[in-house]
Amino acid sequence: MNVHDITTIGVAGAGTMGSGIAQLFARWGYDVRVVDLAEDCLEKSRRLVALYNSSLVEHGIMAEQEAEQTARRISYHLDRGTLHDADVIVETIVEKLDAKQVFWEQVEAIARRDALFTTNTSGLSINRIAARVKNRGRFIGMHFWNPPHIIPLVELIRADETDGETVDVLRELLHTVDKAPVVVQKDAPGFIGNRLQFAVFREALHLVEAGIATAEDVDRAMRCGPGFRYPILGPLQTADLGGLDVFCSIASYLFGALSDTKEAPEMLTDMVAAGRLGVKSGQGFYDYSGGKDVETIKRRDRMFLEMLKHIHSSFGDANVG
């Protein structure tokens, strides 16, 4: 399949990720069919798409007319049979291996023989999800980051039998919708982004649990130090600019002091057991009661959108990490 032949995107799963992915492709001119098993999920998806559109209009990234056109390009369905002639199918259903396997077994029976199959998972094995797929050459992981209509990164994760053509076509497709794709060359837990994210998360938890710093100061240090660099320079190019000899010397004494726990630390498990789950419960490391949850999410998206405007021009530079 040639990327220019792709006109119709099927999205299975009408949750936060599926709705954001649908909005993204529709915004860039693709006809999108969102499929879910429940009508209330489809109705919620309509509201989410409207919310995403309005936020982009509010920040001057989309015109009102473009938002209306985007909404019209998305249709909503209860029947998976509507995916029968989609060029690309993006699966964003519940993060359970057996449910994903059953979905792909059923969809392959009705899908076009040349349709490309993608699964949006945060960490499940791409090989195991594809276990019941007969033509695995067209199957690949395509991991969007939340919120998918804003965050540039999309990870393409090769399964053992994924064809090179599948990788190339989808990478080009993602470029057409203004994303920054990276290719994970083999099926590894957590792919690239979550491995980096959770390495930082583990050390951040250790710093707080050991009394080295407060949660607020750990977050502030990341935002104002390493995090300030990372939209422009990745960790490896940062090391290049700092001097690999310097980083090697620091690694020789610092690596031994870093947390290498293989289990969730007691502080985290205690918080979860106490129902302190973050925004969803109103309390985590921070207090989200009294409307602070909505305020935090709005501020996040506003800052993300402003940052996106500034870093957009760097995507095409191969030397920008």
Please estimate the helix content: 40-55%
Tell me about the biggest sheet? 8 strands, mixed
Percent strand? 5-15%
- How many H/I helices? 13
| Rg | 21 Å
Please list the strands of the largest sheet in the order they lie side by side. 3-2-1-4-5-6-7-8
Through-space gap between termini: 30 Å
Outline: globular
How many beta strands in the DSSP annotation? 8
Uncertain stretches of 5 or more adjacent residues: 316-321
What is the H-and-E element order?
A: EHEHHEEHEHEEHEHHHHHHH
How would you classify the helix and strand content by structural class? alpha/beta
What's the rounded overall pLDDT mean? 94
Please provide a written account of the structure:
With 321 residues, the chain is α/β, with parallel strands linked by helices. 46% of the residues lie in helices and 12% in strands. Strands 3-2-1-4-5-6-7-8 form an 8-stranded mixed beta sheet. Helix 5 links the parallel strand 5 and strand 6. The model is unreliable at 316-321 (pLDDT under 50).
Please give a quick description of this structure.
The protein has 321 residues and is α/β, with parallel strands linked by helices. 46% of the residues lie in helices and 12% in strands. Strands 3-2-1-4-5-6-7-8 form an eight-stranded mixed β-sheet.
Secondary structure elements and pairings:
Blueprint: E1 8-12, H1 16-27, E2 31-35, H2 39-58, H3 64-72, E3 74-77, E4 88-91, H4 97-108, E5 116-119, H5 126-129, E6 139-144, E7 153-158, H6 164-176, E8 180-184, H7 193-209, H8 215-224, H9 226-229, H10 235-242, H11 244-254, H12 266-273, H13 292-311
Parallel strand pairs: 1-2, 1-4, 2-3, 4-5, 5-6, 7-8
Antiparallel strand pairs: 6-7
Helix pairs in contact: 1-2, 2-3
